[in-house]
Q: What sequence folds into this?
C-alpha cells in the first residue's frame, strides 16, 4: 500500500518529475490511455512498469473507468497521481479514490479550470499566474488544494513563454505534494489541506514589483 500509480496521456513531463522524486521505481506504475504517449518511453527507460489502456477500445466512459480501476486496484496504490491525463473521470471512479487521487493543474485554481489556461490568463490580463496540486473531486479541476506556485505574468509573455515558466513550477510542486502524501504528512479537513511540519512564510508576491 505504499505504491504510486501515475496516469498520463501525453508528453509526461510531470510524470518524469514524479519518477525522479525518490520513490522506489518498483513501487510505481504508469498507466496511459494513449498508446502513443511520449511519457511511456521515458517510464520504460526508468524500468518502471507501464500499462496501456486505450480508451478507444471501450464502448463508453463507465466501462473504461471500470477497467482502469481494475488495473489500479491490482497495484494497491497508496496514491493515484493524474499527470496530464486528458480524460474526464466518471463520478463513481473519483469517489472510489476520494482522498487519494491528486491532480496538477496549470493555473491558480479556482481561477481558470479547464483547458487553455495560459491563453485565458493572458486574455484576462492577470498579473500573477501559476499552478495547483489538488485532490480530485467530481467537479472538474476543483478540490482541496495541497500546494500552489505563483509566478508573475511578464509584459511580453506569450502563451508559450508563460506555459514554460508555469511548467517549471509544476515540476517542483507536484513531486513535493506526492512526497508529503507518501510520508503521511497531509491531513484533509473538509476543503482544507494541512501539511504537517512544512515551511510556512507570509511574504507577499507583487507583480509588477513595487517601486524602490
Ligand atoms: C501540464 O501542464 C499539467 O498541469 C496539465 O497537463 C499538462 C501535462 O503536461 N494537467 P505533461 O504531460 O506532464 O508534460
A:
Amino acid at each position: 500500500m505504499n505504491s504510486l500509480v501515475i496516469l498520463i496521456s501525453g508528453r509526461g513531463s510531470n510524470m518524469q518529475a514524479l519518477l525522479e522524486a525518490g520513490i522506489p521505481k518498483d513501487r510505481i506504475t504508469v498507466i496511459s490511455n494513449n498508446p502513443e504517449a511520449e511519457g511511456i518511453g521515458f517510464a520504460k527507460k526508468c524500468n518502471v512498469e507501464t500499462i496501456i489502456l486505450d480508451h478507444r477500445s471501450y464502448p463508453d466512459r463507465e466501462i473504461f473507468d471500470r477497467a482502469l480501476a481494475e488495473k489500479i486496484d491490482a497495484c494497491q496504490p497508496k496514491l493515484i497521481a493524474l499527470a496530464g491525463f486528458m480524460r474526464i473521470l466518471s463520478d463513481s471512479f473519483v469517489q472510489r479514490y476520494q482522498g487519494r487521487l491528486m491532480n496538477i493543474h496549470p493555473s491558480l485554481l479556482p481561477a481558470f479550470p479547464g483547458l487553455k489556461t495560459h491563453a485565458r490568463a493572458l486574455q484576462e490580463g492577470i498579473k500573477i499566474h501559476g499552478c495547483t496540486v489538488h485532490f480530485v473531486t467530481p467537479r472538474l479541476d476543483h478540490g482541496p488544494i495541497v500546494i500552489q506556485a505563483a509566478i508573475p505574468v511578464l509584459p511580453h509573455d506569450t502563451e508559450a513563454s508563460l506555459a514554460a515558466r508555469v511548467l517549471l513550477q509544476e515540476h517542483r510542486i507536484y513531486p513535493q505534494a506526492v512526497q508529503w502524501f507518501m510520508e503521511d504528512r497531509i491531513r484533509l479537513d473538509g476543503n482544507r489541506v494541512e501539511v504537517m511540519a512544512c515551511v510556512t512564510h507570509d511574504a507577499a508576491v507583487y507583480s509588477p514589483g513595487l517601486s524602490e
Summary: The chain has a mean pLDDT of 96. The chain has two domains: 1-97, 104-205. The first strand starts at residue 3 and ends at 8. Residues 159-182 form the longest helix (24 residues).
